[in-house]
Amino acid sequence: MLNIICKHNCKDCYALRICAVQAIKDQQSSIYVETDDCIGCGACRRACVVFSYDQALKEKTVEWLKGAA
Ligand code: SF4
Ligand code: SF4
């Protein structure tokens, strides 16, 4: 399932670039994660402050980032 993560859409999304399985997509000026492809490595959360510090996002992603904190 494609889940929206960020509407910032930085010029060069660090999270998108670091994802080894290309689960992070840039579509319609927003950043999405394809949860079926995500392996829960947590690299995106280390690469981007949005992934790391946004509490609402943290709660939203807990389910698919199993054990990746
Ligand atoms: S996920 Fe992070 S790096 Fe990517 S566009 Fe959003 S704020 Fe920028
Ligand atoms: S946790 Fe998932 S979306 Fe994030 S970098 Fe790892 S595989 Fe990609």
From TrEMBL:
Domain 4Fe-4S ferredoxin-type: 29-58
Entries under InterPro entries matching the protein: 4Fe4S_Fe-S-bd
Superkingdom, natural source: Bacteria
SUPFAM superfamilies for this protein: 4Fe-4S ferredoxins
Annotated protein name in UniProt: 4Fe-4S ferredoxin-type domain-containing protein
The species this protein was found in: Candidatus Desulfaltia bathyphila
Source species taxonomy: Bacteria, Pseudomonadati, Thermodesulfobacteriota, Desulfobacteria, Desulfobacterales
